[in-house]
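If your schedule permits, I should be very grateful for your opinion on a structural question. I have a record of one protein: its chain in single-letter code and its fold written as discrete structure tokens. Kindly check, if you would, that the fold set down in the tokens agrees with what the sequence suggests. I remain grateful for any guidance, and I place the record below:

***
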Amino acid sequence: MRILLSNDDGYFAPGLAALAEALEGLGEVVVVAPEQNRSGASNSLTLDRPLLLKKAANGFYFVNGTPTDCVHLAVTGMLDRLPDIIVSGINLGANMGDDTIYSGTVAAATEGYLLGIPSIAVSMTSFEGNNFASAGQVARELVERFVRNPIMEPILLNVNVPDIPYSELKGTEVTRLGRRHKAEPVVKMQSPRNETVYWVGAAGAAADAGPGTDFNAVERGFVSITPLQIDLTHSAQLSHIDQWMR
């Protein structure tokens, strides 16, 4: 099988190297990742300049664009045949709840899903990155499961792995996305040139973290697996808005 890997932390990220190592031997592994860290890029495509595809000394390909650019370029122009599955990660930091809207890691997998390819986004739930091997093993087991028992429709899975040794993981839970409180205000500072600059504030704490959510699962030491979809239609409001417009 052919496995396409990408991420949003950049082609040099240790999580990407750990993912490639974990999936070694399952098939042909091709890596196409951003040239630099593009965390928070979401599902953005670069349309105002051409993209460059280069190959690093370790065999990874990198693109001067977004995670979405990387997967789109690989699938629609670079590869001579489609990958069987796409895995994005391993991200340093969780992508749970509302984070998935902004996540470049999820965006790379989403692009694969939109192109009709089963796709998985894998993230660690801390910024310390002490146990990439745990997330790598989880990713390998999911790919092996897909090989044994393929799902005959495009799937998009958002996977969050606690940053603990693999032997300490309690198992896996299929979850829904939780919700966060409103984000913290932007941080206002003065630059060395006496310009006012702003840093985006920290994400809010979990607001909806009850049983069945991704937040709840990882808090209890479980791997969270959330199937995602891309239909943004607010179906429950269709009739209400239709009446409002009359």
